[in-house]
Design brief:
Elements (H helix, E strand, L loop, with lengths): L14 E13 L4 E13 L4 E14 L5 E14 L3 H27 L2 H8 L18 H9 L4
Antiparallel strand pairs: 1-2, 2-3, 3-4
Length: 152
């Protein structure tokens, strides 16, 4: 930071910047997509004090014969301090890592296991991987149910 930016203080801020982290995953065969986006505003008040403001968004989308989506957001602030600028930068990066880890743990805690939660919402297929046609009279079960139903 010292090499790239002059030491000027504007409104009580020594330096500020934004770190954006994004990841996108698609699986067309399994009919899902997911997106993770983290935005971290870093404000250094001096060479030894700073603050990290985190905004995280996670979106999971299943679209097999329907449309199931989950979006989770999280906002947190963390104050950081160190003996010097190098130590402060290390603390900022450690805070970013911890904030992302905590957010993911919070989402998984809410959903149990996100994979299991969304698998439970998807359409179920029998072991043969063929759709079961409930309205068809060709199935033995359907004809038995018709015979056992009370006459109206």
């Amino acid at each position: 930071i010292r090499d790239r930016y002059q030491r000027r203080v504007h409104g009580g801020t020594f330096w500020s910047g934004v770190l954006c982290v994004q990841s996108v995953a698609y699986n067309k065969k399994a009919f899902w997509s997911g997106r993770w986006c983290g935005m971290f505003e870093v404000v250094l008040k001096s060479e030894t004090e700073g603050q990290v403001r985190a905004n995280g968004v996670e979106n999971v989308h299943y679209y097999e014969e329907g449309n199931v989506q989950m979006e989770a957001t999280n906002t947190k602030e963390v104050d950081v301090s160190a003996k010097d600028l190098t130590g402060l930068c290390k603390k900022v990066m450690q805070s970013v890592e911890n904030l992302e880890y905590d957010f993911q743990a919070q989402v998984e805690g809410f959903c149990g296991s996100s994979e299991a939660t969304f698998k439970g919402l998807r359409r179920k297929l029998p072991l043969t991987k063929q759709l079961f046609e409930f309205g068809s009279s060709s199935h033995r079960l359907a004809s038995e149910l018709r015979k056992s139903a009370p006459a109206e």
